[in-house]
Amino acid sequence: MTSPVSPDPSPVPPTPNPDPVPPSPNPNPDPVPPRPNPNPDPVPPVPGPDPAPAPPDPVPPVPGPDPAPAPPDPGRPDPLPPVPDPGSPFPPTDPVPPPTDPVPPNPL
Questions:
Q1: For the ranges 2-6, 19-23, 66-70, 97-101, which has the lowest average pLDDT?
Q2: pLDDT at 2
């Protein structure tokens, strides 16, 4: 028979938390200054009258009757011949026999 294990008489005291590490100083404390705008002044509007309107379409419509409608599409001149049915690659099977007489109901 074994003797019960006794608890540790001298528990280890908790280690105190050391002081946290201070944050490192910023090696670049000054921010980068913004670059100056090379073109600070906007382009002024050109003085003078408004531009002329666009000229009309240079191609006038052709006078006369409407052109004749296009002839109907004659279709494919050489239609493909029908593909013959090669039949089934499997041999014919015997017909399925008719079902047998149903099972008579259970008299119980």
A1: 2-6
A2: 59
| Spatial distance between the Cα atoms of 78 and 37, rounded to a whole number of angstroms | 73
pTM of the complete model beyond 0.70: no
Give the length of the chain: 108
Q: 2 vs 5, 7, 83, 101, CA distance in Å?
A: 9, 15, 95, 81
Average pLDDT, the chain: 76
Instruction: DSSP for 12-59, please give it.
Output: PPPPPPPPPPPPPPPS--SPPPPPPPS--SPPPPPPSSPPPPPPPPSS
